[in-house]
Amino acid sequence: DVKVTQSSRYLVKRTGEKVFLECVQDMDHENMFWYRQDPGLGLRLIYFSYDVKMKEKGDIPEGYSVSREKKERFSLILESASTNQTSMYLCASSSHSSGNTIYFGEGSWLTVV
Amino acid sequence: QKEVEQDPGPLSVPEGAIVSLNCTYSNSAFQYFMWYRQYSRKGPELLMYTYSSGNKEDGRFTAQVDKSSKYISLFIRDSQPSDSATYLCAMSETSYDKVIFGPGTSLSVIP
User: Fold this and answer.
1) What angle do CA A91, A74, A13 make, to 5 degrees?
2) How far apart are CA B67 and CA B87, in angstroms?
3) Do the beta carbons of residue A74 and residue A32 sit within 8 Å?
4) What distance in Å separates the CA atoms of residue B34 and residue A101, rounded to the nearest whole number?
5) Angstrom distance (rounded) from CA B35 to CA B72
6) Following DSSP, what letter does each residue of A63-81 receive, concatenated?
7) Which tens digits make up the pLDDT trace of A21-65?
8) In angstroms, rounded to a whole number, what is the distance separating the alpha carbons of residues B20 and B22?
9) For residue A51, with 0-12 CB atoms within 10 Å meaning exposed, 13-18 middle and 19 or more buried, which class applies?
10) B-chain residues near A38 (CB < 8 A)
11) Most buried in the list A4, A19, A28, A46, measured by CB within 10 Å?
């Protein structure tokens, strides 16, 4: 089974703090993604990566950055957390060889106070 | 018009009912179709995957794709309370393209 592991399930951070969300996948997938999910807005793509050290902006990249130093690991960074970044963050991975099916982690619930 | 549309529900059915969940889409180039189930406060999990047109069955679940109508469906037979979740459809043109998700339909199966 594909496993996408997000290191933190629940976090509470203060406004202005730097926040790191870590994600690891164990299926050697080339693609990795970060989404956020908010009620009424659905899944929104923040950033994605097709290869190590490569990153592409998604639909809502403002206020976020990412890092992919190893194939299995993709990190989301909030340089200066704000209250409007309170959300559920989902990491995911996929492979072209499996028809682009996306596998998600359990999610990280971030509250910025 | 959004690229992928779903009725958000909530949809409430009695246990044992047949459930029909649907998505419509506007891009006729979509070929890869997926259904995800998402329990409250959990990540979405892949439920069904189909390529191009036709039906696919897995236990109590059947996925149908009608490309001529740009319409996909997920049927759940003998629905159970454990099926209560949000169901998201997703699709892409090729295995290299961005996957587009629907907003999800909330389903409650009442014992």
Assistant:
1) 70
2) 20
3) yes
4) 7
5) 10
6) T-EEEEEETTEEEEEESS-
7) 999 999 999 999 999 999 888 899 999 999 998 999 999 999 999
8) 7
9) exposed
10) none
11) A4
